[in-house]
Write a structure and sequence with these properties.
single chain; alpha+beta; Pathogenesis-related Protein p14a; 5-stranded mixed beta sheet; 7 helices; globular; membrane; At5g19230-like; At5g19230_dom; transmembrane; transmembrane helix
Protein backbone atom coordinates (compact mmCIF):
# COMPACT_ATOMS: atom_id res chain seq x y z
CA UNK A 1 0.00 0.00 0.00
CA UNK A 2 2.89 2.35 0.81
CA UNK A 3 4.43 1.78 -2.62
CA UNK A 4 1.06 2.62 -4.24
CA UNK A 5 0.94 5.91 -2.34
CA UNK A 6 4.52 6.69 -3.32
CA UNK A 7 3.75 5.88 -6.96
CA UNK A 8 0.67 8.16 -6.91
CA UNK A 9 2.67 11.02 -5.40
CA UNK A 10 5.42 10.62 -8.00
CA UNK A 11 2.81 10.48 -10.77
CA UNK A 12 1.19 13.62 -9.42
CA UNK A 13 4.55 15.39 -9.32
CA UNK A 14 5.32 14.37 -12.89
CA UNK A 15 1.91 15.47 -14.18
CA UNK A 16 2.22 18.74 -12.34
CA UNK A 17 5.64 19.41 -13.85
CA UNK A 18 4.47 18.56 -17.36
CA UNK A 19 1.09 20.27 -17.51
CA UNK A 20 0.85 22.98 -14.91
CA UNK A 21 4.17 24.73 -14.60
CA UNK A 22 4.54 27.57 -17.06
CA UNK A 23 7.02 26.81 -19.79
CA UNK A 24 9.51 29.43 -20.91
CA UNK A 25 8.48 31.33 -24.01
CA UNK A 26 10.81 30.50 -26.86
CA UNK A 27 10.75 33.04 -29.62
CA UNK A 28 11.05 31.71 -33.11
CA UNK A 29 12.49 35.00 -34.29
CA UNK A 30 16.14 35.35 -33.31
CA UNK A 31 16.32 38.83 -34.85
CA UNK A 32 13.79 40.18 -32.36
CA UNK A 33 15.48 38.42 -29.44
CA UNK A 34 18.89 39.80 -30.45
CA UNK A 35 17.53 43.33 -30.77
CA UNK A 36 15.75 43.13 -27.41
CA UNK A 37 18.91 41.83 -25.77
CA UNK A 38 20.89 44.68 -27.34
CA UNK A 39 18.34 47.30 -26.26
CA UNK A 40 18.36 45.97 -22.71
CA UNK A 41 22.17 45.97 -22.65
CA UNK A 42 22.12 49.56 -23.88
CA UNK A 43 19.63 50.57 -21.17
CA UNK A 44 21.65 48.74 -18.51
CA UNK A 45 24.76 50.69 -19.54
CA UNK A 46 22.76 53.86 -18.86
CA UNK A 47 21.65 52.46 -15.48
CA UNK A 48 18.05 52.23 -16.65
CA UNK A 49 15.85 49.22 -15.90
CA UNK A 50 15.60 46.61 -18.62
CA UNK A 51 12.43 46.37 -20.65
CA UNK A 52 10.16 43.39 -20.13
CA UNK A 53 8.01 41.90 -22.86
CA UNK A 54 4.46 43.24 -23.03
CA UNK A 55 2.11 40.88 -24.87
CA UNK A 56 -0.20 43.57 -26.23
CA UNK A 57 2.73 45.77 -27.34
CA UNK A 58 4.18 42.69 -29.07
CA UNK A 59 0.89 42.11 -30.85
CA UNK A 60 0.82 45.72 -32.05
CA UNK A 61 4.46 45.54 -33.20
CA UNK A 62 3.66 42.37 -35.19
CA UNK A 63 0.58 43.93 -36.79
CA UNK A 64 2.46 47.09 -37.78
CA UNK A 65 5.39 45.05 -39.16
CA UNK A 66 2.89 43.06 -41.23
CA UNK A 67 1.50 46.32 -42.65
CA UNK A 68 5.00 47.61 -43.46
CA UNK A 69 6.10 44.40 -45.16
CA UNK A 70 5.22 45.69 -48.64
CA UNK A 71 6.44 49.26 -48.05
CA UNK A 72 9.57 50.20 -49.99
CA UNK A 73 12.71 50.04 -47.89
CA UNK A 74 15.79 52.00 -48.81
CA UNK A 75 17.73 50.50 -45.89
CA UNK A 76 18.33 53.85 -44.18
CA UNK A 77 17.06 52.80 -40.77
CA UNK A 78 14.79 54.92 -38.58
CA UNK A 79 11.96 56.22 -40.67
CA UNK A 80 8.57 57.86 -40.52
CA UNK A 81 5.81 55.74 -42.05
CA UNK A 82 2.06 55.92 -42.41
CA UNK A 83 -0.01 52.96 -41.23
CA UNK A 84 -3.61 52.72 -42.41
CA UNK A 85 -6.30 51.59 -39.96
CA UNK A 86 -4.16 52.16 -36.87
CA UNK A 87 -7.22 52.07 -34.59
CA UNK A 88 -8.19 48.71 -36.07
CA UNK A 89 -4.75 47.33 -35.21
CA UNK A 90 -5.12 48.60 -31.65
CA UNK A 91 -8.45 46.85 -31.22
CA UNK A 92 -7.09 43.57 -32.66
CA UNK A 93 -4.45 43.67 -29.91
CA UNK A 94 -6.95 44.51 -27.14
CA UNK A 95 -5.50 48.00 -26.66
CA UNK A 96 -8.05 50.62 -25.69
CA UNK A 97 -7.52 53.62 -27.93
CA UNK A 98 -9.25 56.03 -25.52
CA UNK A 99 -7.15 55.20 -22.46
CA UNK A 100 -3.75 54.36 -23.96
CA UNK A 101 -1.83 57.56 -24.56
CA UNK A 102 1.69 56.73 -23.33
CA UNK A 103 3.71 54.60 -25.69
CA UNK A 104 6.03 54.79 -28.65
CA UNK A 105 6.05 52.98 -31.98
CA UNK A 106 9.54 52.87 -33.50
CA UNK A 107 9.86 51.32 -36.99
CA UNK A 108 13.21 50.87 -38.71
CA UNK A 109 14.11 49.44 -42.06
CA UNK A 110 17.46 47.69 -42.44
CA UNK A 111 18.31 45.29 -45.24
CA UNK A 112 18.33 41.69 -43.99
CA UNK A 113 17.75 42.99 -40.43
CA UNK A 114 21.42 42.81 -39.46
CA UNK A 115 21.09 42.98 -35.63
CA UNK A 116 23.99 45.39 -35.04
CA UNK A 117 22.68 47.80 -37.69
CA UNK A 118 19.13 47.56 -36.35
CA UNK A 119 20.37 48.25 -32.83
CA UNK A 120 22.43 51.20 -34.04
CA UNK A 121 19.29 52.62 -35.66
CA UNK A 122 17.59 52.56 -32.27
CA UNK A 123 20.48 53.83 -30.14
CA UNK A 124 22.07 56.43 -32.45
CA UNK A 125 19.04 58.14 -34.03
CA UNK A 126 16.08 60.17 -32.85
CA UNK A 127 14.73 56.93 -31.33
CA UNK A 128 17.44 56.94 -28.65
CA UNK A 129 15.49 59.53 -26.62
CA UNK A 130 12.72 56.94 -26.16
CA UNK A 131 15.13 54.18 -25.13
CA UNK A 132 16.77 56.61 -22.69
CA UNK A 133 13.42 57.42 -21.07
CA UNK A 134 12.97 55.61 -17.75
CA UNK A 135 9.16 55.85 -18.03
CA UNK A 136 9.20 53.01 -20.54
CA UNK A 137 9.19 49.61 -18.85
CA UNK A 138 7.64 47.27 -21.42
CA UNK A 139 8.40 46.38 -25.00
CA UNK A 140 6.97 44.49 -27.92
CA UNK A 141 8.88 43.63 -31.08
CA UNK A 142 7.74 42.58 -34.51
CA UNK A 143 9.57 42.05 -37.78
CA UNK A 144 8.79 41.32 -41.41
CA UNK A 145 11.33 41.19 -44.21
CA UNK A 146 13.56 44.25 -43.75
CA UNK A 147 11.32 45.95 -41.16
CA UNK A 148 11.70 45.87 -37.38
CA UNK A 149 9.12 47.54 -35.15
CA UNK A 150 9.66 48.24 -31.45
CA UNK A 151 6.64 49.32 -29.39
CA UNK A 152 7.44 50.76 -25.95
CA UNK A 153 4.93 50.82 -23.09
CA UNK A 154 4.87 52.22 -19.57
CA UNK A 155 3.57 50.75 -16.35
CA UNK A 156 0.99 53.52 -15.95
CA UNK A 157 -2.70 53.08 -16.63
CA UNK A 158 -2.34 55.23 -19.74
CA UNK A 159 0.61 53.30 -21.13
CA UNK A 160 0.33 49.68 -20.03
CA UNK A 161 -1.49 48.79 -23.25
CA UNK A 162 -4.69 47.69 -21.53
CA UNK A 163 -3.96 45.34 -18.74
CA UNK A 164 -1.17 43.06 -19.88
CA UNK A 165 -0.32 42.77 -16.17
CA UNK A 166 -3.83 41.68 -15.20
CA UNK A 167 -3.80 39.07 -17.98
CA UNK A 168 -0.66 37.54 -16.52
CA UNK A 169 -2.20 37.56 -13.04
CA UNK A 170 -5.28 35.68 -14.24
CA UNK A 171 -3.12 33.09 -16.03
CA UNK A 172 -1.07 32.53 -12.87
CA UNK A 173 -4.27 32.24 -10.81
CA UNK A 174 -5.65 29.59 -13.17
CA UNK A 175 -2.41 27.59 -12.90
CA UNK A 176 -2.65 27.68 -9.10
CA UNK A 177 -6.34 26.76 -9.06
CA UNK A 178 -5.90 23.78 -11.40
CA UNK A 179 -2.87 22.59 -9.43
CA UNK A 180 -4.84 22.81 -6.19
CA UNK A 181 -7.78 20.86 -7.63
CA UNK A 182 -5.55 18.10 -9.03
CA UNK A 183 -3.69 17.94 -5.72
CA UNK A 184 -6.96 17.53 -3.84
CA UNK A 185 -8.06 14.79 -6.25
CA UNK A 186 -4.83 12.87 -5.76
CA UNK A 187 -5.11 13.27 -1.99
CA UNK A 188 -8.67 11.89 -2.00
CA UNK A 189 -7.68 8.94 -4.20
CA UNK A 190 -4.58 8.05 -2.17
CA UNK A 191 -6.02 8.50 1.30
Amino acid sequence: MASLKLLMILLFGLLHAIFFLPSPVVSSDKDEDNVLQGINSYRSSLRLPTLSKNENAGCLADKIADKLENQPCNGTGATSVQVNNYSGLLSKCNIKINSTTDGAVLPVCVRKLVPTLVLTNYTRTQYAKYLNDSRFTGVGLGSEDDWMVVVLSTNTSSGSFSGAVSLMSSVAFCHCLVSLLVGMLVYVLVY
